[in-house]
């Protein structure tokens, strides 16, 4: 989160009638804007699909393929997301900007190869034509690179560039994909989608190349430094499994229907998924503002006293103030998340109840479960991010494991035993995450001095170079193609 804090505090210090709204808007554009705009593009595809001459089966296949590509690319990128973010933060903090571009090229190349193998094998059993196969694989690879590039862009606060790129891409999709599909060109919408996301990727990579020092070689050093924070590397994939695993089970449960080969859809489950997913994004924006504006000054003062050898009384006072502010802001976040979740559920039920007969079976009941589950997850995610803020990577990994196991296990059971309650598995896993993460944070507070200053140093001393050879081997392999 380094970098945004200064801007947010400056906005709050303005003390204007709209300073708070400006801070929320600024944070939303940086952290959730790209995802919201991505969902907007998917929605635009669905709208355009209703006004084409392509048959309904082909339209459904394209829409389902886009959903799979987004879900799969997010899952693949989660393998390196937390690791790359930490490496990027270290490089910026240590003023080693010349290492950033090599890490971007290396992580992108690694994801491209893995994606081509894994998703390429999946598409072989999706019942697609050769032309559709290539377009779907291309879309998946482009999306994977976009999610990877977003991490580098948010670090330099290029939110305006990201937003403009997505808006221009929407125009490309409408101008190219819409007419192509309307004229009956099979896969026309998919072609437009590939061009739109391709344009976004070109704009993003251009901004990255302009900002960071020029260095076009590949470096897998970020893998070799996993030794320093090995537990952190597993948090991303585990959270992804817990957050989206229930969706995969829904796609292959009795709620679903076949589209083409392994491609399936679950209309009653997919109906409310996008709306429900807005809730944890609201919690993330609130958390960033709370931490950077109110908590960070106390956090910074606490460490400053240690570095300047403050006396015992001043250190204890700084620690108490820091934790009091943290508890207060987390309390505010919980109430805001509860209110936002309740309001969304009430509004959606009022709007959709009169139309329930025309909606997919059980969709409204599942929507309420999803909204409640994702609302609770937003609170659990705030506690998890706080543990990461204090570098409790081992605790975060343990919680992510429990969250993933509960979400996957209960969803697998409910998908066949009680499909109408499928989302309750994710709901219960989110409740467990909140309860356990809160307990972990409370225990952390009791040993704050030891954990923050003593434990990381001991962990660093005991680490082993388990990933050094892997990084070297990958560099040798990719060097042949440079």
TrEMBL record:
The keyword Transmembrane helix applies. The keyword Transmembrane helix applies. Pfam families: PelG. The chain crosses the membrane at residues 29-53, 65-84, 104-125, 131-153, 165-183, 189-212, 232-252, 272-296, 330-352, 372-391, 420-437. Coiled coil: none annotated. Keywords: Membrane, Transmembrane, Transmembrane helix. This is Exopolysaccharide Pel transporter PelG. It comes from Streptococcus danieliae. The lineage of its organism: Bacteria, Bacillati, Bacillota, Bacilli, Lactobacillales.
